[in-house]
């Protein structure tokens, strides 16, 4: 290519890099704002999005998750956008490094999720079950999230009704949540055992497996975008040496 064509190609890719990362930056800011909103006023958030709440996001703290993802996207978007605009080799290399680390972490997480599903269940049981025993029925927002989850997903606790043994809720009401007995009350241990309602972890895992094709397509699309972003940033980084 002629020097003019090379310069035109460089300028086009630079502009696309800026626009792409500006979108990432704005998305990160939006997620960060939503995360802060959830932490400050979680009840109004649940009132608006309650119908969409039957997802794996309810097993973890949605607010903190949005805040972390939003902050990461803000950093990535800033490094890519400002680095391309200022033609800074340092910022472009930082952008490349951050995206590469995230890409490697995602691949490692996917491998671990496939290989160590049982370990993930054990870890979640160790983390979530004590929270259920301590906070369910006592913490209004925590209880509301789990009530919506168990009702919409048709599940009980993380593993099954025994997660509520010796819990604040059981000690206070003398029964299990009615979701553990197919919405029948009073939900005692006999009725809960007969109902055999599965835990939310198994139900959500089954839902993920059912939609594995969609999840895989989304993951592949994200990976492709990350690889393209790394390739573009490295192209700009190398072309700066020629300018």
UniProtKB/TrEMBL annotation:
Major place of localization?
membrane
Looking at the UniProt record for this protein, which Gene Ontology cellular component terms does it annotate, in alphabetical order? lysosomal membrane; plasma membrane
Cellular location of this protein? Lysosome membrane; Membrane
Disulphides:
156-181
Q: Which UniProt keywords apply?
A: Disulfide bond, Glycoprotein, Lysosome, Membrane, Transmembrane, Transmembrane helix
The record, for SUPFAM superfamilies, names: Tetraspanin
Mark the transmembrane ranges: 12-38, 58-79, 91-116, 214-238
Query: By its UniProt entry, which InterPro entries does this protein fall under?
Result: Tetraspanin/Peripherin, Tetraspanin_animals, Tetraspanin_CS, Tetraspanin_EC2_sf
A Pfam family annotated for this UniProt entry: Tetraspanin
Membrane topology note: Multi-pass membrane protein
Quaternary structure per UniProt?
Interacts with SLC19A2. Interacts with NTRK1/TRKA.
Q: Which family does it belong to?
A: Belongs to the tetraspanin (TM4SF) family.
Query: What does this protein do, in the record's words?
Result: Structural component of specialized membrane microdomains known as tetraspanin-enriched microdomains (TERMs), which act as platforms for receptor clustering and signaling. Participates thereby in diverse biological functions such as cell signal transduction, adhesion, migration and protein trafficking. Regulates neuronal differentiation in response to NGF by facilitating NGF-mediated activation of NTRK1/TRKA receptor tyrosine kinase and subsequent downstream signaling pathways. Plays a role in the inhibition of TNFalpha-induced apoptosis.
Name the record gives this protein: Tetraspanin
